[in-house]
User: Fold these one by one.
Assistant:
Number 1:
Amino acid sequence: MKPEGSGTDPQEGPCQGLWVRGPDEGWVRVVCLRACRLAGSRARRLLGGSSIRGMSVRWDRSSLSFPSTRREDEPQIKLTPVRLYFPDQPYCRSYQKMDDSETGFNLKVVLVSFKQCLNEKEEVLLDPYIASWKGLVRFLNSLGAIFSFISKDVVSKLQIMERLRGGPQRECYCTLQAMVAHELGSQLVDLERRSQHPESGCRTVLRLHRALHWLQLFLESLRTSPEDARTSVLCTDSYNASLAAHHPWIVRRAVTVAFCALPTRKVFLEAMNVGPPEQAVQMLGEALPFIRRVYDVSQKLYAEHSLLNLP
């Protein structure tokens, strides 16, 4: 699992890449970040000082000038090299350590729970939908801080939906279909700006809906990819096909760099806690259709009411 190539401590020489240090290997450059476009302050909040399965993420003191491969309307920024330090564990093994709070977690149970989100009329029930998303958040959190930019946003959206479900109009928020009809009929959906109704249920679920599409695509790519597939590529492709279109340029660049530190495909499959990787692949094939069906029903509803591009 050790990356090819090695180098000296970045403190003693140029540090122009992503460096990993294990207890015996010295410093190893994993990926060169010179060509990556990294938004300094936003990425610092995303990665700097965070803990990823016992791994410390720190920023080197030096900076590199941002390459001149940008659009004219994009800001000039600096690229700050990243290095990853493993205090007491071999490379990649620290990814496999789960927090005590994740004991007993099983992704199959979470994915199959999406089956309960649709009633006999194929309406999306919001209580099971919220509960299923909470399980997905546990899975994302079990993988460390790399996915925090998504899980934190999802948690805030789930809190909004729980307030609506517990509010005076709770009966109007039993199903996604009832919610859309209620909010459109009551003019609670701001179709042009966010300022008037920034926390409408329609807008909130749309953000969850987009994130669900990304996760569905990523899990499907993990299922169908070969054993040596690079998870950073799989995750980036899934992100570009779903969430990227709805994020500003500065976030897209920071996220792309963060994905460079993802664990291997095997580690992802083992984190699902359903058995060996082969069993996890089989489970995904059986369970992902439940997510896909919920997504398709929601997508059709939003498209029928022209709500897919809510600001």
Number 2:
Amino acid sequence: MGSSGADKTTLMDVLAQRKPKGTMTGEVLVNGYPLDYPIGRVSGYVEQVDIHVSKTTVREAIEFSARLRLPEETSDKEREDQMENTNDILELREIQNELVGIPEGATGLSSEQRKRLTIAVELVARPSILFLDEPTSGLESRAPLKMAKVLRRVSDTGVAVLCTIHQPSKEVFSFFDSVLLLQSGGRVAYFGDLGEEGSQTITYFEKNGGDPMNPKLNPADYMLHQIGTATTERGGQKDGHEIWLLSPENKELMGSLEHTKCDKPAIVPDKAPTSSSTILPQETFEFSSLRTSSGSAL
């Protein structure tokens, strides 16, 4: 999470190996293991723009993805079961025979339904990791809250859910477990568990010279304000990224990453997984670390 220009999408694209151009340094780990196979084999990516064939039904869109992306040895029954399970998780069963239509069209799916279909197209391939670029943006009324509940259900199935998000409501924010706060230029201002109603992150800012939290405020708005106006205890301006680098929380995180890091690759390249059932041990799903030249970790 961060303000516009914080390079949230750029970071996620790098982690998802979707940035073929440019200079990238550092290392990406999954469960402490270095990657030596394309992460796309075990992950899904939900872009901000929902692109579907307008004349297909919801079911046809999901089946098309399942036939192309599930392992070749998948039986018809297994594929059908996976499609039905995906329909249930994304609550698409009641509209599975409706045409997708065009965005903002007189007929077809609403923007919120289209987003759920986009997620379903990725989820039916049984990814272990699901990336989403601002899944609540552009949704109206209570749709962002419904989307947050959907993502929570996906996470509860054992899929690691990582998404960028911009100024979520208090209700939406409550469904997330941890947060990475980025300042302009992609610099880390905080990473860690949120705690109940963001209490753990709020405590971090308050003890580092931040403003006291007003209980009436949205925790997400409070955090975005703090990383934009970081101060020291003496009241002078100090960069939030610098505060993070010197914090005990960052040192503890770095130590944890070193402790979980393994030298051997996660999976032999020519035996990369084709379903979430064959990927990494689930008991320690410490998703990733990205080291920068300044020593910060994501």
Number 3:
Amino acid sequence: MRNSKYDKFFILTKLEQQFFQEFCDKVISLDPAIRFAGIADEDGKILAVSERKGLKPLLTPEERAQYAITAATRQYT
């Protein structure tokens, strides 16, 4: 976890982005029943997403972003 006064401005490196994306892709490949995998930071900002191909998503990107923010907020309350 980053620990500086600039934490809220951090940008993922290409290596971090690649790692998170590969992780989500791996989760999707584990079981055909898994439709979606995503990683969000502690503020609910979505960092990586993978969806099963051929399926209609249950949430729009906007709904998914709001859900991630709500889940992150719920964790700290």
